[in-house]
Structure formats: C-alpha cells, structure tokens
Amino acid sequence: MATIAGLTMAVNVKEMLQSVTGLRQQAQCNNQLLASRVSLHKNSLETRRQPVCSRRHSVVMNVTTTHSSSPAVTQTLSEQSNQSRNPDLATVLVSEKLGDGGLDILRKVSNVDCIYNLTNEELCAKISDYDALIVRSATKVTRKVFEASKGKLKVVGRAGVGIDNVDLEAATELGCLVVNAPTANTVAAAEHGIALLTAMARNVAPSDSSMKSGKWERNKYVGVSLVDKTLAVMGFGKVGSEVARKAKGLGMHVISHDPYASADRARAIGVELVSFDDALARADFISLHMPLTPTTKKVFNDDTFRKCKKGVRLVNVARGAVIDEEALLRALDSGIVAQAALDVFAVEPPKGGDSSFALVQHKNVIATPHLGASTVEAQEGVALEIAEAVAGALAGDLAATAVNAPMVPAEVIAELTPYVVLAEKLGRLTVQLVSGSAGVKQVKVVYKSSRDDGDLDTRLLRARISKGLIEPVSDAIINLVNADYVAKQRGLKISEEREPADGESGVPLESVSVTIQDVESKFASARGDHSRSITLEGKVKDGVPHLSKVGNFSVDVSLDGNVILYRQVDQPGMIGKVGSILGEDNVNISFMSVGRTLRGQAAIVAIGTDEDVSDATIQKLKELPAIEELVFLRL
Ligand SMILES: NC(=O)c1ccc[n+]([C@@H]2O[C@H](COP(=O)([O-])OP(=O)(O)OC[C@H]3O[C@@H](n4cnc5c(N)ncnc54)[C@H](O)[C@@H]3O)[C@@H](O)[C@H]2O)c1
Ligand SMILES: O=C(O)[C@H](O)COP(=O)(O)O
Known about the structure:
It is built from 21 helices and 26 strands. The structure holds nicotinamide-adenine-dinucleotide and 3-phosphoglyceric acid.
C-alpha cells in the first residue's frame, strides 16, 4: 500500500507544484538573489528547473517572534505579521527555535513568523496560513495538522535528523513535501554521547548535587574507568561512528553492531563489527545510535538485558522508545544495568506517573532533556541546512534531503506501477536473506526487456529496489528523489544491467533479478552463480508481482503476502504435512509452488501466506525430517 500511496502522491506533488507556479516563479526570482547563499543539492534524479523569471522583487525582511505561553500575545503578534506581509511571497511558520543564519535565508524569500510552544490545536488553527512549516523534535506534525492546512502547506522542514514527529504518510497523501537536515548535528550528538558516558562513569551529576546540598562525599562517588573497557556502539551510522572514533581516543575497545554497516569503514577506525548478542555479551558500556523504526522499537527489553554482562552501563542519545523503559527500570533495580545516562525518552517531556519520569528519578540514572543537538554550532548548521532545503523547495527545486516527493511523468508511473511494486518486494525479500555482519555493499540488478535502452526508465525501479533493501534496516525514507543519495551515503553500489528479451516491446519488462553480492545467505539455496551471493528474480503476471526464481531454482509464487521458502528432499506427502502444520496455526496459504532440479532430488518450495506465521510454527516446519532449510520472509 505504501508503494501505491507513494506513486499516487508523485502525481499529486507534481500537480501541487504546478498549481503554485506563480509562487515558484516569484521564489525563483528571489532565489537568483540568493544564488551565493543557497546551494541546492541536486542528484541525477531531479528533472526540472523552471525558466528563470526576469522581474526582480523587493526583498521583505519580515519576521515576527513570539512564545505562545500566552494565547493573547500570540494572536496579537500574528495579526501584526499578517498586516505587514508581502502577499507575493510565500509564508513560513517556524515553530521551534531556529538559528539566525537560517532565518536570514528564509526572510529573503518569504514572510517568516516564529511562534513557539504552540499546542497542537493552536498549530492546527494557524497552519492554513502557511506554505511552509519548520520544526524540531517537539512539534508533532500530525495528520490533523496536514488536514487543517487545507492544501496550503507545501513543505515541512525538520531542522534535525529524526522525522518520527512528522506523519510522513499523511504528508505524502496530502501532497506535502518533507525535508530534513541529516548531517549538521552529528558531531553535537556524538559529543553529547561522550559527555554522558564520562559523566556517568565518574558520577559527575550526583556528586555535584550532593556538594550543592553542602556535603563532601568522596567515598560514595567512586567511579569506574573507561580505559581498556569494551564499548558496544549499537548503530554505526553518522553519530555512532563518530562516538566510536572518540571512544577509541579515550582508550576504549570499541565493538559495534549494525546490520547494515560496512566492515571496511568500521575496520578503518579500528572497530570490530559483531552480532547483536555478541555486543551484549561483551560490552561493559553500551551506547545506542540506531533510528527508531518498527524493528528497533523496544529492542532493549527484559530479554536483551538478560543477555548483558551484569553491571553494564547504558547511554542513549538516539530515541527513548528503542528501550522498553519498564524493563530498564527492572534491570536497574536488579543491578543488571549499573547505571544509565539518558538524553531521550519514550515520552518527552516525561510526566509524573510514566516510565520516562520514573527513569529520570532513579538514583542510578543521569538525564538530560534531549540536548544531543543543542550546541550553538549545531543549531546554526541545522538552521542553514534546513533553510536552504525549504527555500529551494519553495522555488520548485527538490533538495537532496527530501524524504518524500517522487517526480516522474504520470504516464511512466502508470505503466511501471506493477513493476515498481515487484522491485521493492524483491529488494525487501533479498535483504532478509542476508546473514552475518559483512553488510550489503554491492547489488546487481538485471532487467530482462525487449525495449530499447531509451524506452525503459529504470529510475523508479532502482529507487524502489533501494527502498526495499534499505528501509527494513534504517529510518531512512527512500523515494525517487533521495534513493541514489541515501544508497551512496551508505556505501551501497547498485549496478544495473540489461538482458535482451524476445517478447513484445509493449510490455516494459519480462523479469527483474536482484543479486546481493559478497554476503553470506541464511538460505543456501538462494545463492546465485557465486557462492557468496543471493539472487531472487521476479515477474509481473496479470498485473501481479510474482517471485519466479530463488537462486537457480524456478518457483512461481504471487507476492501479495508473506513468503515461506524451504528446500526439501523431493518426496510425496510433504505438501499435506506442511499444510496441516500451517492450518493448525490458522495460516492461510495463498499460493504454493515447487521448483526442483531432477526427480527425487532437492526441491525448493515457495509458499505465500496471508498471515504472519508464529515462531513456534516455523520451528515445527523446520523439524520435519525432509526439510533441509527454511526461512520465513515478511513483505
Ligand atoms: N539526542 C539527539 O539530540 C540526537 C541528535 C542526532 C541524532 N539523534 C538520533 O540518533 C540516531 C542516529 O542518528 P544518525 O544521524 O547517526 O542516523 P544514521 O541513519 O546515520 O545511522 C543510523 C544507523 O543505525 C543502523 N541501524 C538500523 N537498524 C539497526 C539495528 N536494528 N541495530 C543496530 N543498528 C541499526 C543503520 O544501519 C545506520 O547505520 C537517530 O535515531 C537520530 O534521530 C539524536
Ligand atoms: O533527530 C535529531 O536531529 C535530534 O533528536 C535533535 O532533535 P532537536 O532538533 O529537537 O534537538
């Protein structure tokens, strides 16, 4: 569904941008004035720049700032700003503190109102006055906000990395572009991680408060040393790798778990990539730097803490909800976790009665109120990064940091729709077959088509394959605009090849195959032509994506649910046994296909299931004597 919604919105975003041609031309004129300030990043997927307008307009320096603790004050200032607005310019609402450099950029192309601490109701009441909204992490840009804008809001700029406070699905559905500022606060977040690590180890916060209450407790606050201790960095992205580098400087032994990180990049700074369980078992200190995604939500829970060394110390500057906070409270009480240093919470700000609040109050916890990105330097950098992206978007450009906004001609989208669905599903399935900690770096895509090169636009397909490969292990949102950018940033190289097909050129593609190279597979039969590669091939049949090959085995299973793949010794009676085990778990089989090499030899069976299949049922299937290997893949 997400794919189809994304495609539908590709058209809507285009229409939306066309409908504001006047605004765009105006902004483009002003953009000329900004040419030296606003460097708009373009990637190969961007398609357009409108003709430059010859008229020049006066620049309006119109900024109003207010804190909305008093509604009356907000209203008065808002009315004043309305009176002095230049009606020819776009309107931008800045709802959280933004650095002056960014405001200067925005002021030159738009009417800017800075109104802080708005409640969600107040934001909804005002939003239909604005073409753009700039937020940090405190403003919740919910579906209600997008709906209340009644189509006026064209761009949301998140002045920071995490976009978990913006309802991206609603933004896309309602034709609003969302951009973020992914790089400018990396160093600040890493520095804060190190500050928490050292402050926690040496009891800086509690001993300071003890002294302020007149005490001198030298024996109570004996700390632990960092040198020669093992730090596990969970998430080796921008912030995690910077924390690792700094911790090495403190003499720590650094290991990291990140299912997507490049081993070469880790090795270059002397970091060993390890499995999740290995990281837990070996760490004296754990520092969290993964995004909040459905997979990472509460990934630190009772089970996880049980696998840690007793007395481990935990730092979190990522997102509060990656920890089950109730479980952390239990682990702190039992001594499994000796200390925790937390910058982020499941509920921000924590309120009396919730687990976040109980953690802040715990004697072995030190806490800061989401300060990771809060340095003067980072906030100036973030402000410039987001202002450039928003100014560019208002001018009709697509910034490299756009997180939703495919721009492809409607007729290409219509023709390729079932193939892009197939492409994303192939990416999503193939990456789930990877095992080990080597990381995905090289992917080869082969399009079998009877079309001439110029008649097959593979950008959408490639973008959707990237989306399928990257999204399950990241909080990155991949679309046509940012797919190449994100893949490159992650060191992922996607090579594309064409294989001629005999069919009619009316059909864009006969098949697509995705090969992840130089990785181990958790399903040996999916190995392609090389032992360290994984290949899946798919086709579109009657408008529906099908899996057509697993490694060198032919199968035929419709990709409209989840998939069980297994290799069995070819023998009668197996289908009945597998069917009844699934039936006992109320799992409906939507499709089944058997692909074998020779009679009586190994066969690959692909089963489509409507429902999720429980771990217990998967285990029962694996225990059938004729089954040699089995995987369950979610779509
Ligand atoms: N406290 C703050 O003020 C602050 C400031 C900046 C960033 N952040 C947060 O820090 C986190 C990291 O930011 P970043 O800029 O480094 O992002 P990033 O995308 O560069 O890095 C995230 C890394 O996590 C990895 N990952 C994904 N799933 C994982 C899993 N299950 N286990 C381990 N690793 C996994 C990804 O492969 C990626 O390398 C984000 O949640 C971000 O919102 C917080
Ligand atoms: O994701 C981020 O960029 C950080 O959590 C910073 O959030 P902030 O902009 O609210 O400080």
